[in-house]
Amino acid sequence: MQCRMGCGACCIAPSISSPIPGMPAGKAAGERCVQLDSDNLCRLFGQPQRPDVCAQFDASEDVCGEHREQALWLLTELEKATG
Q1: Which residues, including other chains, have CB under 8 Å from residue 52's CB and lie 6 or more apart?
Q2: pTM to 2 decimals?
Q3: Which of the listed residues 4, 5, 20, 30 has the most CB atoms within 10 Å of its CB?
């Protein structure tokens, strides 16, 4: 599965404990990453500054579902279960 352009769910729903440029302490679950632009595209995609946890994320139907709203729900539920 390929990432849906403009989804951004993985940049909002989960917490990220590693530093992100502009967010040195990482981000809380549900907080929008500062690197997510107004079109929900990552400004760091493909850049060496992109955190490893972000680069290692693979889109899959079990976490991304069939549409953006489902991805936000699935990733939020996963965060609750593991956070």
Answers
A1: 18
A2: 0.90
A3: 20
Torsion of CA 42, 47, 48, 52, to 10 degrees: 30
CA distance 5 to 23: 23
Query: What is d(CA 73, CA 77) in angstroms, rounded to the nearest whole number?
Result: 6
Please enumerate in sequence order all residues whose Cβ is within 8 A of that of 4, keeping only pairs 6 or more positions apart, or say none: 59, 64, 67, 68, 71
| Strand ranges (E), 1-83 | none
| Tokens standing for residue 37 | 């632009």
**C-alpha distance from residue 35 to each of 31, 32, 51, 65, 73 (Å):** 12, 8, 11, 23, 21
